[in-house]
Amino acid sequence: MEPVNIIGAGLAGSEAAWQAARSGVPVILHEMRPAVGTFAHKTGDCAEMVCSNSFRSDDDVMNAVGQLHWEMRAADGLIMAMADRHRLPAGGALAVDRDAFSQAVTEALRAEPLIEIREGEIGDLPIEGNWIVATGPLTSDRLADSIRSLTGTEALAFFDAIAPIVHAETIDMSVAWEQSRYDKGETEAERRAYINCPMNRDEYEAFIDALLAADKTEFREGETAGYFDGCLPIEVMAERGRETLRHGPMKPVGLTNAHKPNEKAYAVVQLRRDNALGTLYNIVGFQTKMKYGAQTEVFRMIPGLQNASFARLGGIHRNSFLNSPTLLDDRMRLRKRPNLRFAGQVTGVEGYVESAAMGLLAGRMAAAQVRGDDLGPPPFTTAMGALVNHITGGAEAKTFQPMNVNFGLFPPLEEMRGGRKGRKDRYPAYTQRAKDDFRAWLATQ
């Protein structure tokens, strides 16, 4: 039986390999790490999470990304299974111990008899065979050149930034306190999943001044930066207005200072647990392109972090993606060369779970082709189907940008057209319809 070859063992490639193998089709998973590294990756493990450790909301009734979680679980997704196994308290979000998670994904893939993992870089797009390209935002220069040569267009690009990680023991808990926003969570651990550092107005204003004045990473000559709005560096947000951060990642709502319950903070910096031991915390929403020296100086201005020790500082990297509406069909195949499928962030979806979901679909579609079948995408009333529809034709090609899953991608509910139904009515209706339609799609396979 012809194997499915997959380039890249990130979240999308790992999920694609798992799905194809579980369909009874042999898989060769090609990964250039650790032989060829990147500045962002630290290991050679599959599905390494290099930015946040969060899969965001796990609410499958009121949230589109939570619905995507549900669909991946329903489809026996490896990424969601390992995320659930290694989850950390994070209020209503699904956060994981990133090292344990990636190690578990790697072990599961190596234990699957139909999957062979081959180390080494693939520098040119293959002409023959059944291939999935899932190389993510850090596609090697050589392979990126091959993609550009084949597609006849310059790959679009934006810059994705990495948030810093702090050693928990260096956080001053006489200033900071543990609490999830609005005390969200079913357990005490969930309700105390975040560490909060309060700022008064003077502290906030001084922080903004320092942020704006700090030395930033320079771009290479001829390189432009088009940031994805869902992952803006904090200094770029600050440049958009002094109050922007206070209404974004530093919003003080839903929190009560345990040390000064009657004093309302002007702004709050939140840190989320990054490993199961609780020894590492990442600063939520604090992606940055400041130089390392500037980062330590500016971040130690945050009350509670004045003596912080950093396990990792923030960074920035180029994130390339295809103009998928012009290049891919609804089976995620390159129109110019249908033996090549693309999956993950390179297709123009944004986020860990969205990338993994595209890998899930690509793996199932590729395996179906090997078996002589044709598997179409889920209905675009589902979260996965809405994403595929967006990247393969639903979006305007001229203005195409990476997109997180959201209810704006779902077709309207006919019974709610023209009415004034609020989200409390609309969102559960969207997710119930999605669940019904996704179950029906799975039943056809």
TrEMBL record:
The UniProt annotation places FAD binding at: 8-13
Cite the EC number.
2.1.1.74
What are its cofactors?
Answer: FAD
Task: Name the predominant localization.
Answer: cytoplasm
* Gene Ontology biological-process entries: tRNA methylation; tRNA wobble uridine modification
Q: Does the keyword Oxidoreductase apply?
A: no
Q: Where is the MnmG N-terminal domain?
A: 4-373
Q: Which InterPro entries match?
A: FAD/NAD-bd_sf (IPR036188), MnmG-rel (IPR002218), MnmG-rel_CS (IPR020595), MnmG_N (IPR040131), TrmFO (IPR004417)
Q: Which reaction does it catalyse?
A: uridine(54) in tRNA + (6R)-5,10-methylene-5,6,7,8-tetrahydrofolate + NADPH + H(+) = 5-methyluridine(54) in tRNA + (6S)-5,6,7,8-tetrahydrofolate + NADP(+); uridine(54) in tRNA + (6R)-5,10-methylene-5,6,7,8-tetrahydrofolate + NADH + H(+) = 5-methyluridine(54) in tRNA + (6S)-5,6,7,8-tetrahydrofolate + NAD(+)
A GO CC term attached to the entry: cytosol
Going by the UniProt record, its keywords in alphabetical order are: Cytoplasm, FAD, Flavoprotein, Methyltransferase, NAD, NADP, Transferase, tRNA processing
Q: A single GO molecular function, which one? A: tRNA (uracil(54)-C5)-methyltransferase activity, 5,10-methylenetetrahydrofolate-dependent
Where found in the cell?
Cytoplasm
Function, in words: Catalyzes the folate-dependent formation of 5-methyl-uridine at position 54 (M-5-U54) in all tRNAs.
Task: Identify the NCBIfam families for this entry.
Answer: gid_trmFO (TIGR00137), PRK05335.1 (NF003739)
UniProt cross-references to PANTHER family, sorted A to Z: GLUCOSE INHIBITED DIVISION PROTEIN A, METHYLENETETRAHYDROFOLATE--TRNA-(URACIL-5-)-METHYLTRANSFERASE TRMFO
Q: What is this protein called?
A: Methylenetetrahydrofolate--tRNA-(uracil-5-)-methyltransferase TrmFO
Primary gene name: trmFO
